[in-house]
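Subject: two folds for Thursday's group meeting

Dear M.,

Sorry for the delay on this. The cluster queue was jammed most of the week, so I only got both jobs back this morning. I'm pasting them in the order they finished. Each block is the input sequence followed by the predicted structure tokens. Could you check whether the formatting survives your parser before we put anything on slides? The first protein is the one we discussed after the seminar.
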Amino acid sequence: MAPQGLQYAQNVREQFSSSGRGAGLPKKFLTFSFVVFAFVLIVYLGLAFGYGTFLRSSIDKARGDLGSLSSQITPQQKEDLATLYSQVTNIRGLLENHALTSQIFTLFEAITSQKVEYTGFDISVPDREVSIEGFAATYEDLVSQLVLYEESPQIERYSLEESEYQKGVIRFKARVVLTKDILQPIAL
């Protein structure tokens, strides 16, 4: 009976020992993980010591260049630059809030009849109002001028305050109220 017990021992040993299927997959995974870890470690060390040193030296060089440029500028030039910046900022603020009355002259040049002549032109920017005094050759010419005021999209309303025949021409006074957008600066 002893030989049979040995046979069981050999069969069990053969079953669990080298069967040709070993622990290959965990060994490959462990090798792959080690390779990835080594690669990441090499990249980290390269960035930390190589690229970091390069960046620090570049920053130090830029600071040195900036310091040498700063020493080339005199205190008077720095003061002049600050004054210029202040003036430019103030002018920008003025221009943003400035009413452009030159657009009014362009408008009236475009809508004035050839037989009408202006002798007085007063502008009130807050009221958007223009007081006009002038001469027309005839009442017909005056009416055609008033029609031009009425047809203009930049004129909100108008009123003829006075007109009289004087020395062969019609002297008149009119008040014109402009739309809000004509006084606004043109957006750049």
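Second protein, same layout:
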Amino acid sequence: MDAAVRKEASVKTRLSVMPAFGALAFIGVLAAGGATPAHAGPYTDELSKCLVDHTTEQDKAALVRWIFASTAQHPAVAELAQVTPEQRTEMSKTVAGLFERLLTQDCRAPFRDARKNEGQETVSAGFGVLVQTAMRGLIENATVSSALASVDAHLDKQKIAAAMADSP
């Protein structure tokens, strides 16, 4: 195979990975809600473990900040957050660097094996687990947990108890 054909094949291989990265923002939202892949094979499990094991607390904080800034674009919450385009760009660059480091250095072999043996969706599934781990750290923060628990003061517990009593 000549150099031009090898280069074209290499570019096509690299570009075929890119749709998975376009889905990562969507994976972030799903994972934050606790969604998990319907089926993860052993190679995806290894990739997921590697991604989590090679992500520092600083990396997880950057990932959570990026998810927050990205989801803050939604019209239902946009007025609540003030994230400048420059901040969003910097967060995106930081997370892109994280993804790149994880896939090309820290977890290169598990990434290659998972993609080869279980398909392209392994990238999304693996990062879904990473996002779940990062978001769990956010929600388990005492201040955040307290804020989330504040809804309890506004619940009509008698109505809820009555609804449970009516259940079969």
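Two things I noticed about the second structure. Residues 85-106 form the longest helix (22 residues). The CA atoms of residues 5 and 11 lie 10 Å apart.

Cheers,
T.
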